[in-house]
Amino acid sequence: MERNTTVLPNVLMLGDRMSATFTQLLNASDDAKYLQRLNKQDFWDLLFPHSEQTYVDNKWELWQEGKMEFLWSCSVDKIKILAQFIDDCKGN
Fold first, then answer.
1. Which of 57, 66, 69 has its CA nearest to residue 36?
2. Beta strands per DSSP E along the chain
3. Residues 6 or more apart from 79 whose CB is under 8 A from it?
4. Quick check: helix, strand or coil at residue 17?
5. What is the pLDDT of residue 3?
6. Per-residue pLDDT tens digits for 75-85
7. What pTM, to 2 d.p., does this model score?
8. How many domains does the chain have?
9. pLDDT digits (tens, 9 = 90+) for 54-81
10. Cβ 45 vs Cβ 53: under 8 Å
11. Taking a C-beta distance cutoff of 8 angstroms, is the pair 18, 24 a contact?
12. Which of the residues 8, 27, 48, 71 has an alpha carbon 20 to 30 A from that of 82?
């Protein structure tokens, strides 16, 4: 019997089964859409409530340039805050 396979960049799907990594990336991508709700003031209040404007301006610029780059620059506590924000948006 021949397998129904579709090859995506670095991902192999066999029929209806997807790799765990693919599923995690897809879920993360869907969840990241909630981050688009943050405007600059919300971003500041959520992540840097006690920071000076010049610091937040630099972080906001990084945020605007790319969410992944911003996330890579974050400490674990900031990732937790963003995860909670996403859960709150989803109603979890």
1. 66
2. 5-8, 11-14
3. 71
4. strand
5. 47
6. 999 999 999 99
7. 0.74
8. 1
9. 999 999 999 999 999 999 999 999 999 9
10. no
11. no
12. 8
